[in-house]
Amino acid sequence: MTRSIPELFNPKRLEAHAELFDKLSKLRTLLGMLHSNGFEHFRSLDENRQADYLWTCMEYADGAYDAMLASDGVTRG
What we know:
Elements: H1 5-8, H2 11-36, H3 39-44, H4 47-71
């Protein structure tokens, strides 16, 4: 899909792209930390802490998804 130059530099689109990059970077970092520490470390955490990690991953993923939609001019209903 080809976009016109003014549409590519739309501030709202650029902001959504920055948000997408931010959320995906945070998600990648968190998952990288979990992986590098070994999943045994994750399993050794109490259930509440495990849930915190997983919910944080979900929040970052949802934020990235919403930013991607906003970048395309769509909102989740």
